[in-house]
Design a protein that fits this description.
mainly alpha, about 0% strand
Length: about 80
């Protein structure tokens, strides 16, 4: 009986300790992700400086409108769920 308790205790400790041993990857900030996205898209599209100056304001406007619509949709869905509950 004692041996069984010790084995269970050791197994529990080993499982718990493996979780502490794994460090979470560093979270990138929104700005870092945005910079990487801009660099990637610019490279893939082979944009010149002039093309990039024309492209990015339009793309940023599109992205902002898309994000606004997503937030609006999320809010409407939340209100709808609250109304049917």
């Amino acid at each position: 009986m004692n041996a069984h308790k010790i084995i269970v205790l050791l197994a529990t400790l080993l499982i718990a300790l493996t979780g502490f041993g794994q460090q979470k990857p560093k979270q990138k900030t929104k700005e870092e992700i945005e910079a990487l996205r801009v660099a990637y898209i610019t490279k893939k599209l082979s944009l010149t400086t002039a093309e990039a100056q024309a492209f990015w304001p339009l793309y940023n406007e599109y992205t902002q409108k898309r994000e606004d619509l997503r937030k609006e949709h999320k809010l409407k869905m939340k209100k709808y769920k609250e109304s049917v509950d």
